[in-house]
Input
Amino acid sequence: MTFPKTRRAAIAAVSATAVLVSGAVAISAVASPHHMSATASGSTTQSSVPHPRVSALRFATAKFHNLQVAQNNGYAFFTDAKGIACIAMPGMGGMGVHFVNGSLVGDPAERIRHPEAVVYRIDHTGMLRLAAVEYVVLKDAWDAKHKHAPRLFGHTFMLTGAGNRYGLPPFYSLHAWAWHHNPAGNFKMWNPTVHC
Output
């Protein structure tokens, strides 16, 4: 599925630039429905049973069903290094469209109620619907104070190495599908029911 032309224009107008790590990394926001694979390594045990703390996450992020509220709270439209907004992996599914809070990415602390990104799926009408959150921390910042990869909800974050599609230095990340069912698992990166 692609953005309808009018929706694509509206999304592109949301933000001219998403800034990460207190302005150290900037990626232009140009909406595009194309796919590009991501390079990620690492493993984690997944379960379709909701973690008890997901309710706390849902309580903290329910307000972000309203995209304007997310923007008012510092979440900015995000694209990869090639300007692709809706992130998907052929054969695996999608993540959707990310809005990222750069000040949270720049902070190496990981807190359930304060995800670095909120993720929206595109529904059948082309509208954005809150689907998941993503926790992101740069590997160097985390490793400087910790001996092991970060964990939330009993799951270890995945490591995405250098040379990734986002043009970012190596980072750890974990998706939590708190608002849209993921048949692959609540904490899997890709959701086979999300399409771009």
User: Anything to note?
Assistant: Residues 1-49 have pLDDT under 50 and may be disordered.
